[in-house]
Design brief:
By secondary structure, this protein is mainly alpha-helical. The protein has two domains: about 35 residues, no CATH class; about 70 residues, no CATH class. About 55% of the residues lie in helices and about 10% in strands. The protein has six helices and two strands; from the N terminus they run H-E-E-H-H-H-H-H. Strands 1-2 form a two-stranded antiparallel ribbon. Strand 1 and strand 2 form a beta hairpin. The longest helix has 17 residues.
Length: about 120
């Protein structure tokens, strides 16, 4: 990755546009020994997050966001949502999202309850 030197007046409009495109942004800070404070934006939302989110129906996105923000694996939660929102078996959903069927099974009941809270019926019982 190449370093780009930008002044604050150049960065601010780009940052505001970036935040507006996303709606919700989480900013964390941590002390870096001898280097002052460092700030991280949406630390838990890497490429895996976006890839999994794009594969899910839009009405399930709040459920997905809720679990990922609590530290759950995006792949496992996406597979659990997919398994419950479609007629796919747990094994098929796990294979499609690249995770273990056991991880999906362990989260099915919590994801089912969250889908119900958002008024989304699961296809499987």
């Amino acid at each position: 990755m190449t370093d780009i030197n930008l002044t604050p007046s150049q960065i601010l409009p780009l940052f505001i546009e970036w935040v507006n495109d996303r709606g919700t942004v989480r900013i964390d800070s941590s002390s870096a020994a001898g280097n002052g404070k460092r700030y991280f934006i949406n630390r838990d939302r890497g490429p895996d997050y976006s890839k999994q989110l794009d594969q899910l129906p839009e009405e399930t996105h709040p459920v997905f966001d809720r679990f990922v923000s609590q530290g759950y694996s995006p792949r496992v939660i996406a597979a659990a949502i997919d398994s419950l929102a479609t007629y796919d078996s747990v094994v098929e959903a796990a294979e499609a999202f690249g995770c273990s069927p056991e991880g999906v099974r362990n989260n099915l009941s919590a994801v089912r309850e969250a889908l119900a809270e958002y008024g989304i019926d699961s296809k499987r019982s």
